[in-house]
UniProtKB/TrEMBL annotation:
Pathway: Cell wall biogenesis; peptidoglycan biosynthesis. It holds the Pfam family Mur_ligase_C. Cell wall formation. Catalyzes the addition of glutamate to the nucleotide precursor UDP-N-acetylmuramoyl-L-alanine (UMA). InterPro entries: Mur-like_cat_sf, Mur_ligase_C, Mur_ligase_C_dom_sf, Mur_ligase_cen, MurD. Keywords: ATP-binding, Cell cycle, Cell division, Cell shape, Cell wall biogenesis/degradation, Cytoplasm, Ligase, Nucleotide-binding, Peptidoglycan synthesis. The gene is murD. The keyword Ligase applies. HAMAP family: MurD (MF_00639). Its main location: cytoplasm. This is UDP-N-acetylmuramoylalanine--D-glutamate ligase. It is an enzyme of class 6 (ligase). It comes from Atopostipes suicloacalis DSM 15692. Residues 316-429 form the Mur ligase C-terminal domain.
């Protein structure tokens, strides 16, 4: 069976439209599958749903009919955000139907070399850096950053050629439905506790992450963060690929690491740590992971150094917004967990006014104490976790604390508490869903509030 005809004649249910459902439905239709799309939302006036219907794809919207699973489906392609306790998914599993995600369909028909990137934090930044490093002065083929970074893999799956590179950012939600995914290079940036409300346990979350390497062979490579012993153990238990560790803490003869201000790849000096524009030890780790990929793909040290100096970060991920009257503003709205905020705070030497708070998932914030004590001079907090943030800030000895309604109010409050050379940092340590539809909207509102602050202040001069 060739890649192109593995879905020929299959009866496929795509559950959930959104971007990934829309693109996977089109891809499956092109591959000769009989496709039905089902979404709980009403899609009568949805342009994408209407386009699918024009192609001959059946669209059922406004709920999940009780008789939906009575059709003889061969498999279900699930939107990654839909939990496995969804009634349709439960029925599919009882019928022993394969339940996969969109990226599995795309990867199974893709001709390009696949570089899969996952981890609790740093996925998008690392994916973006790899894309930049592989894209400079490229001799043949092209490189594409796809997947969880925003472009569904199935949108480009059939257009990629054998000399192309597909750098695919992979979330744990996506990886749960990837039984045959086999990246040529798998990258694991780090592994912390996250998404337990979705996965149910840390063990289940880790099990999903390990899917990125389970089908690899000795011809493939797994790149991982050696500074996390638990992650290293899991990698060695689950990967049959060549292992390439990276470390910012110890020098590695057979890996990518740091020594005396230099970055080494297998004993060769590649660049200086000072070449990195973006701040923070977490971004150093992201850079080490990306350099590992770049060196495996034959990228020159000169190009690597150039990208290190020119890469200014990804939007909403410790994103430099600007400087005003000696205050420096950073947007780290993507910090939807405590570890991400710890990493952001550890990257600054100047005093920080921290803007934090969001969805209450029942977590304690006590692990933030060391970084709060060392880096934070004032806290502005909002959202469901505001009281918890106040409590931990008091434990850290922070005396300047203010609760506000939302991010819009937080910015002028932070500025009022700040002094020259202070960092004003949005790094919520929590998801956005209590007040905002996603972290991108939260970050955009922060950026707008910063610009409004500057404009209003200038008008008062």
């Amino acid at each position: 069976m060739t890649k192109e005809n593995r879905y020929q004649g299959k009866n496929v249910l795509v559950l959930g439209l959104a971007k990934s459902g829309y693109q996977s439905a089109k891809l499956l239709h092109t591959l000769g599958a009989e496709v039905t799309v089902n979404d709980a939302k009403e899609l009568e006036n949805d342009n994408e749903a209407q386009e699918l219907q024009t192609l001959g794809i059946k669209v059922i919207s406004g709920g999940h009919p009780a008789n939906l699973m009575e059709d003889s489906f061969d498999l279900v392609v699930k939107n990654p955000g839909i939990p496995y306790d969804n009634p349709v998914i439960q029925k599919a599993l009882k019928q022993k139907l394969p339940v996969i995600t969109e990226v599995e369909v795309a990867a199974s028909v893709m001709e390009a070399s696949i570089i899969g990137v996952t981890g609790t934090n740093g996925k998008t930044t690392t994916t973006s850096i790899i894309h930049e490093m592989l894209n400079q002065k490229r001799v043949s083929g092209s490189v594409y950053a796809i997947g969880n970074i925003g472009v569904p893999a199935s949108q480009l799956a059939l257009s990629l050629k054998s000399d192309d590179d597909a750098v695919i950012e992979l979330s744990s939600f996506q990886l749960m439905g990837t039984p045959t995914l086999k990246p040529n290079i798998a990258v694991l940036t780090n592994l912390y506790s996250a998404h337990l409300d979705y996965h149910g346990s840390q063990e289940a979350y880790e099990e999903a992450k390990m899917n990125i390497m389970r089908n690899q062979t000795s011809e493939d490579v797994t790149i991982y963060n050696k500074d996390q012993p638990h992650l290293e153990r899991l990698v060695k238990e689950n990967s049959n690929a060549q292992l390439l560790p990276f470390s910012r803490k110890e020098y590695l003869e057979n890996g990518t690491s740091v020594k005396e201000g230099n970055i080494y790849f297998k004993g060769e000096v590649v660049a200086k740590v000072s070449d990195i524009f973006i701040q923070g030890f977490h971004n150093l780790e992201n850079m080490l992971a990306a350099i590992s990929v770049a060196k495996l793909k034959g990228v020159s040290n000169e190009i690597i150094q150039e990208v290190m100096r020119q890469f200014h970060g990804v939007k909403h991920r410790t994103q430099f917004i600007g400087e005003y009257k000696g205050r420096i503003f950073y947007n780290d709205s993507k910090a939807t967990n405590i570890e991400a905020t710890e990493n952001a705070l550890a990257g600054f030497d100047q005093p920080v006014i921290l803007l934090a708070g969001g969805l209450d998932r029942g977590n304690s914030f006590d692990s933030l104490l060391p970084d709060l004590k060392e880096h934070v001079k004032a806290l502005i907090t909002f959202g469901e976790t505001a009281d918890l943030m106040v409590e931990v800030a008091k434990k850290a000895g922070i005396t300047q604390i203010k609760k506000v309604e939302d991010v819009t109010e937080a910015v002028p409050a932070a500025y009022a508490m700040s002094a020259v050379d202070d960092i004003i940092l949005l790094s919520p340590a929590a998801a956005s869903w209590d007040q905002y539809d996603n972290f991108e909207i939260r970050g955009d509102i922060f950026i707008e509030a910063v610009h409004n602050l500057i404009n209003l202040d200038e008008k008062d001069l």
